[in-house]
Amino acid sequence: MAEIPNSGAEVSGSGSSDFISEFIKEDLQSGKYTYVHTRFPPEPNGWLHIGHCKAITVDFSMAQKFGGKCNLRFDDTNPEKENYSYVEAIKRDIKWLGFDWEDREYFASDYYEYLYDIAVKLIKKGKAYVDDLSEEEIREYRGTAVADKNNITHTPPGRNSPYRDRTAEENLDLFARMRAGEFADGTKTLRAKIDMTHPNLVMRDPVMYRIRRATHYRTGDSWCIYPMYDYQHPLSDAKEGITHSLCSLEFEIHRPLYEWFINEAEVFPSRQIEFARLNITHTVLSKRWLFRLVSENLVNGWDDPRMPTLAGLRRRGYTAEAIRDFMSRIGVAKTDSMVDIAFLEYCLREDLNKRSSRIMAVLKPLKLIIENWEAGETEELEAINNPEDESAGKRKIYFSRELWIERDDFQEIPPPKYFRLYPGNSVRLRYGYIVTCTGFDKDPATGEITAVRCTYDPETKGGNAPDNRKVKGTIHWLSAAHAVPIEVRVYDYLFSAERPMEVAPGGSFLDNLNPDSLEVITGAYGEPGLAAAAEGDRFQFERLGYFARDPETSGGIPVFNKTVGLRDTWAKIEKKSGQ
């Protein structure tokens, strides 16, 4: 059994996903709720990334576990950043991941009138007021946390706005005029009236509505005031009868406000429960930073295979099954942790090993000439499609006088423990014969090896060999006459640092971008079957790793993305000897 790498995350015990189940069980047993209804509430301002998979998995799986339902709701209250393309991308990715919301698709923008009416209700109760302070002044009046000489953080009391004591009648009039478009953007806001001395800054009269003259992708120009997320979110949950609002840990500090709005609005008592968000080494999981990578053309779009977006991972060759397995293994903790990306790659290899057809490809070809093979003669050999799946069957491959091998599979002067081809050494050609190197051709001007010469042993076909012909090395190859040209894109981590957001003062996470995250290999070759590969088809290129057919072509030549490598003992030896 393969060794499971350390994920770096808590996957069992008191910090596992059982804590969410226990909360839900308690609520059902106490009679607080008679059913379970969750929701996944993305904002349609970017594409989903693997961090969202954790929330998706938790939301849908908890509903399924308790025989409940899970809504898909787009929290679309920011017209300047949202559009339908993001909506469609999000829906596509959730379905690809293996979850379905059936007919429970909702939009917060459908609730604008409902939210407005609740705001009016809160004004009438004396729990909300129209403020004339600017955004900067609101921050100044609210106050900020400061550290004393002992580095202990204190939060000095804030100051009440001079407009805080307006009458309900005056606030109702001003709020109606805000909606009617009488005031310029940024000149007025509607704020909750809570406590400007509260130790939690979130509770210091948070803004509920702001004026924004921006065309909304669904409601057009019918509104010029838009609700803030902290106001809209709990009330949208309540309107849908959501029992358990499962959120990532950064919303823990917002929970008192979530509960305040529900209590003061006197609506359905949805409950917020927080869990730790997903953090992965060498990866940035924030739509804001991912958007910057895209907008500054530092990657080739949201579906660049180096991106942690579901579209990027899918294009690279990841499977939904591998991602779901990864989520299941890491569990859901109460505290933040960092998961080693090697653990995600382990889960991916485990899945691809079972489902991927084996095939041979040569990325950096070097000609191999079989000197005792008759020119023009071709032999068909049999190759196994997948040793993990007998039903995958076998395929025919062609053997001829001139073959392609990997340039790294020959050394004129071999280093220690090198078991591939070098003058006088023998190796087995995968599924074929044992060959012995008799010499090589070299370009006298450049010193580059242009061809390797060998003889083959006809008694060693397909794994057969006399006792005295055992060899230590096996290499892959292609018949030069039958190979098809392919382009290969080899990806490394987008960020070289394990924690890309940890930077020196004045620095940026972009300082940690890996300049060698993409290598485009032209002039590669593969078995003839690769020419007919469809978009998304996955293969194990023997000895090289797992690859997936990209939707693009390069001058009519099929492109294959490297999904993940195989464990390469020789690479580890080389690295160790070079240190």
TrEMBL record:
Gene: glnS
Residues where L-glutamine binds: D75, Y229
GO biological-process terms attached to the record: glutaminyl-tRNA aminoacylation; glutamyl-tRNA aminoacylation
GO molecular function, one term: glutamine-tRNA ligase activity
Pfam families the record matches: tRNA-synt_1c, tRNA-synt_1c_C, tRNA-synt_1c_C2
GO cellular component entries: cytosol
Protein residues bound to ATP: E43, P44, N45, R277, L278, L285, S286, K287
Record note on quaternary structure: Monomer.
Location of the motif 'KMSKS' region: 284-288
Keyword Acyltransferase in annotation: no
UniProt superkingdom: Bacteria
Keywords: Aminoacyl-tRNA synthetase, ATP-binding, Cytoplasm, Ligase, Nucleotide-binding, Protein biosynthesis
Subcellular location: Cytoplasm
Domain tRNA synthetases class I (E and Q) anti-codon binding intervals: 474-550
Catalyzed reaction equations: tRNA(Gln) + L-glutamine + ATP = L-glutaminyl-tRNA(Gln) + AMP + diphosphate
EC number(s) from the headed UniProt entry: 6.1.1.18
Glutamyl/glutaminyl-tRNA synthetase class Ib anti-codon binding domain span: 357-457
Spans traversing the lipid bilayer: none
Keyword Aminoacyl-tRNA synthetase tagged: yes
Cross-referenced Gene3D superfamilies: HUPs (3.40.50.620), Ribosomal Protein L25, Chain P (2.40.240.10)
Protein name according to UniProt: Glutamine--tRNA ligase
PANTHER family: GLUTAMATE--TRNA LIGASE, GLUTAMINE-TRNA LIGASE
